Amino acid sequence: MITLSSIRAAAEVIAPHVVRTPLLPFGSGWLKPESLQPIGAFKLRGALNALARLEDRSRGVVAYSSGNHAQAVAYAARLHGVPAAIVMPSNTPEVKVEATRALGAEVFIVGITERVQRAEELVAERGAALIPPFDHPDVIAGQGTIGLEVLADLPSADVVVVPMSGGGLISGVATAIKSIKPEVRVIGAEPALAGDVAASLRAGQLVRWDPVERARTVADALRDEPSELTWAHISAYVDDVVTVTEEEILGAVAALARQARLVAEPSGAVAVAALAKLAGAGTGVAVVSGGNIDPALLARLLAA
Amino acid sequence: MITLSSIRAAAEVIAPHVVRTPLLPFGSGWLKPESLQPIGAFKLRGALNALARLEDRSRGVVAYSSGNHAQAVAYAARLHGVPAAIVMPSNTPEVKVEATRALGAEVFIVGITERVQRAEELVAERGAALIPPFDHPDVIAGQGTIGLEVLADLPSADVVVVPMSGGGLISGVATAIKSIKPEVRVIGAEPALAGDVAASLRAGQLVRWDPVERARTVADALRDEPSELTWAHISAYVDDVVTVTEEEILGAVAALARQARLVAEPSGAVAVAALAKLAGAGTGVAVVSGGNIDPALLARLLAA
Fold it and tell me: Of A8, A283, B62, B232, which has the most beta carbons under 10 Å away?
């Protein structure tokens, strides 16, 4: 389990390179817009902390990801002047491949089932360090800095809602919040179509859903599942999970653009949709985790 | 002329009620996203300061505006628990009328040429205080707080680009910056179709353009012209003006949504378009002044 002191240490390490996102009023609650980070997602926090804490990064870093973690590691590596090799599945949208290359990373396109193996080969061949998307204490500690900032900016917060996929974000945020102020409720938010953590909390143990099932949701960054490490944090610290429909997710994307002037991706709007269902829970904060939406999808939602 | 100390005093007055907007990296420069203020525009700063400094606000406040100033005054009045009467021209989009009413203001719809007169009548009838959109020292001092924040967050800034219309925003920002660090260049940004201040600076005196000419630009919040008060600040402090085309403005709106995950209105993107034309000018900051765009227009720009 990670500790509050590791999160506080991460905050110092990443401060020069991340945006200190403000809380924005939204309806009767607040937003923590991590979509405003340089790569458009909170992932930069964990990647920066993990990379900075590597004992030897001289031979570069490796990551596998089709999404925001790819760009986070590429960005962090460029900042530290080390090479980054990113393994992406062949169904990754070209725009994300190009964005990762534009950050100076070497991209390896492989079949979706070969991602992990190819990354491990690169680690072995190069002596490079693997930065996993969530299953690592330094990554979790980096994401936890969001919890410190929420409590610092809004000491009166009663509930903090955090989207869940692999669980790195909520593990860090919940550790920070429960260590400082245990009476603040930490609520996970999931698409109902990828509601495996909600099912796990009900069952009292980690329930695994078929990846094909989890892949149905439009929230494409929330299709992963917890590891043993993140489940340990989730089961210890998370008070409850709220699941939301696809319609609620897309409605939240549109509301964020219209009322908060934020471009959010569907995954980034899931906690906002969940917070809207928690009326009467007191002062709430929703983490807007990312903003890398397909512009054509946003256009359709705004034209509707 | 307003002073640095009045801006510093304004910063203390408004701090509890405005978002402390961060600087966001964007290309080789930075953005100051005032679009993230509660009403979606910097106007809240000036309205809050002016309202807080009224000697007697017991009989309420009056404003005339079809745009962001209307909502700024309504929002500030509600915060302070005083009635607000807002005079809006009959061509104001219904969505803006409703947004102003939703903030608790009483809205008076009049013909476009009767706005000022009707506002003055309301002031006389009610003993209420008029809060002008830019032609007032307290309003200018409130907007100037943006300049303090830019210098605090980015001491290495070389150039700050600010959109211009009535000139309240740039008057305040330029006063703050030139008082603290005169070597930082303050550049105004205007649509070429409403380039009256650029023409004024070239002529060395306030040049007035026909309102019909100024109304051609898509940047509907930048169709006003300076007063004697704001011109005094502009001519004293502004180093230069960059004008941008309509195409450059709309391109900047799309780039802000795609690359900075910000919803900006055309007027709010004008300084971003201008900064893009200042390559080689050093470390630049563009003020994104507002985000209240017609969602259908943003949808069209993103679908293109």
Answer: B62
Element (H, E) at B185: strand B185-191
Distance from the A264 Cα atom to the nearest Cα atom in chain B, whole angstroms: 7
Q: Measure the CA–CA gap between B54 and B50, rounded to whole angstroms.
A: 6
> What is the DSSP-derived secondary structure letter of residue B88?
E
Q: Mark yes or no for CB contact A262/B263 under 8 Å.
A: yes
Which sequence positions of B are flagged as catalytic? 43, 289
Distance from CA of A235 to the nearest CA of B (A): 33
Q: Quick check: A261 and B40 CB within 8 A? A: yes
- Which residue's entry shows tokens 């309202």? B51
Residue B95's DSSP bridge partners are none
CA atoms of B73 and B71, how far apart (whole Å): 5
Q: For each of the domains in chain B, give its residue range(s) and CATH number, in order of start.
A: 4-42+136-303 (3.40.50.1100), 45-130 (3.40.50.1100)
Residues sharing a CB contact under 8 Å with residue A221, sequence separation 6 or more, in sequence order = A41, A67, A68, A165, A265, A267, A268, A289, A290
C-beta separation of A77 from A83 below 8 A: yes
Q: Flag whether residue B261 sits within 8 Å of chain A, measured between CB atoms.
A: yes
Among A129, A137, A194, A206, which residue's Cα sits nearest to residue A163? A194
pTM of the predicted model, to two decimals? 0.96
With an 8 Å Cβ cutoff, is A262 touching chain B? yes
Partner-chain residue, chosen from B21, B25, B291, that has the shortest CB–CB distance to A22: B21
Supply angle C-alpha B46, B52, B54, rounded to 5: 105
List the one residue out of B253, B246, B228, B243 whose CA is nearest residue B304. B253
Query: What does the pLDDT read at residue A94?
Result: 83
Reported as type and span, the H/E element at residue B110 is strand B106-110
* 3 state SS of A169: helix
Check if the interface score ipTM surpasses 0.85.
yes
> Hey, is the C-beta of A94 within 8 angstroms of any chain B C-beta?
no
H or E element in which residue B48 lies: helix B43-52
Six-digit token string for A239: 């008070």
Torsion of CA A131, A136, A137, A138, to 10 degrees: 10
SS3 A15: coil
- Does residue A30 register a pLDDT over 90? yes
Of A20, A24, A299, which is closest to B19 when you measure between CB atoms?
A24
- On the question of pLDDT at A11 being above 90, the answer is yes
B191 — pLDDT class (breaks 50, 70, 90): very high
The pLDDT tens digits of the residues spanning B37-46 come to 999 999 999 9
Indicate if the pLDDT at residue B95 is higher than 90. no
Output the six-digit token pair for B201: 């600076």
* Helix or strand (DSSP H, E) at A151: helix A137-153
Sort out which chain A residues have CB atoms less than 8 A from B21's CB and list them. 22
